Amino acid sequence: MHNLAIGRRACPALLSSLAAAVLLLWPAGALSADSPPAFTSLPAIQGDAVVGATLTAKAEWTGEPTPQVRYQWRRCPATGGACVAIVDAIADKYVVTAADVGSRLGVKVQLKNKGYDAISATSVTTAVVVPAPPPSSDPPPTSDPPPTSDPPPSSNPPPAAPDPRDDPVTPSEGKSFVEPVAPIVTPVVSASARATLLRPFPVVRIRGFFQHGGVRITLLSVNGPRSARITVSCVGRGCPVSSLSLAGAPARLRAFERFLPAGTVLQVRVTGAGRIGKYARFLIRARSAPLRRDLCLMPGRAKPAACPSS
Question: Is the entire prediction scored with pTM above 0.90?
Fold first, then answer.
């Protein structure tokens, strides 16, 4: 029988051997440390708040092991208040439905990994959901009246009329406003004027709802010929940009689809080479629809004027 004696010289060597054996037997995964979930980029929503559009939730996070992610889309009041979870809307994408019209949409993202408590963050809500716009189409062509005397009538068909002015809308904070629907009447214009009007004549549409101190624009669009050039100028402390230029119509002026305080002035110009163009001016007011003015832009002139008529 042999006794194991550990002297002062042998002890350090034995301890080193034991430590090496422990490292060999220790699982490789234990060398990496777990970490709790954390957002490196808060949730945000991409897409348009229009019926039929697809919204996508975007976020970035860290955590070890990789966190499990859970999405919950929510429907929120247009003017603020508690949001309600949408049943079965638990994917990173959501298709806007007719039930969402008049509400805002948001998404809540939850992260959870083993050994740590779950964390969550919510996105900024979208603009108020609006119905899908009807498909745009050119107005049906109209024929000239039969000739009654010399000279013969122009072969060009009469253009579509400028869209009517709208202003009076009963104010009510939090309620939406749209341009009043009025019958479009083709004006009687001279043959020379017919030859120079943009065709189809541009139509500028605005839609939104009232808010304290101004209005929130949910739609600002221009329909017209593809060859037209659109320029928008904005004056006032609430302007997101001072000017914007686009080539061709139809077009959405999304930069101005937001809250605009009272006193803001938007001027929309739609022009074409050698043609009479469209001018629309909107003065944003508190607790009331924007004050609108429609005029024409004559070729070679910067100042808008009344549209031509006989």
Answer: no
